[in-house]
Amino acid sequence: MQIEVGAIIEGKVTGLTNFGAFVTLEGNTTGMVHISEVSNTYVKDIKEHLSEGQQVKVKVLSIGADGKISLSIKQAITTVQQAAPAQQHKPRNSHSRPNVWQGQPQQTSNEPASFEDMMAKFKQVSDDKFSDLRRSNDSRYSQTSSRRGNRK
Q1: pLDDT digits over 15-61, tens only?
Q2: Which residues, including other chains, have CB under 8 Å from residue 35's CB and lie 6 or more apart?
Q3: For the chain, domain boundaries
Q4: In angstroms, rounded to a whole number, what is the distance separating the alpha carbons of residues 147 and 152?
Q5: Separation CA 86–CA 54 (nearest Å)
């Protein structure tokens, strides 16, 4: 079978690097999944998402003139979900309210977090980091002031 751009095919992970994964396809052809194409979420360590020998569905993104094949796992998943029947969408009761964020984003395994959830989490992490930075700067300033006071 000839590999074509846009095709979704199955392959086997044969190598992991800090920038992506090598996947062997039909006909002993190898392509690469860049780390940014592994998941819809941020991937810090690819080994948390993939392992050697794992069977994966990939979408062929491009085939270079030099024969290099660029693949995507996350686009293969998205394409398969879009092709599935619309039975996944349940009609919503007009009186029901959407889930309101209360501390932790409520996220199912296949659905990405909503924009509001991501912004709330970002704001919390940002506030925590600024607090740590202020504390660190305050302690440095107080140490410097006490040293200057001793010189008089």
Answers
A1: 999 999 999 998 889 999 999 999 988 989 999 999 999 999 999 99
A2: 18, 19, 20, 21, 43, 46
A3: 8-83, 111-147
A4: 10
A5: 29
CATH architecture of residue range(s) 8-83: Beta Barrel (2.40)
E strands, 44-87, where?
Answer: 55-63, 69-72
pLDDT, tens digit, 9 for 90 and up, residues 135-144: 877 777 666 5
Per the CB < 8 A criterion, the answer to whether 34 and 27 are in contact is no
Does residue 15 contact residue 37 with C-beta atoms inside 8 Å? no
Give tens-digit pLDDT for 85-136.
655 555 555 444 444 444 444 444 455 678 888 888 888 888 888 888 888 7
Query: For position 122, what pLDDT does the model report?
Result: 86
What three-state secondary structure class fits 151?
Answer: helix
Which helix (H) or strand (E) element contains residue 146?
helix 115-151
Q: Report pTM.
A: 0.53
pLDDT of residue 94: 46
- d(CA 41, CA 38) in angstroms, rounded, equals 9
State the residue for tokens 């660190």: 136
- Characterize the bridge pairing of strands 30-34 and 8-17: unpaired
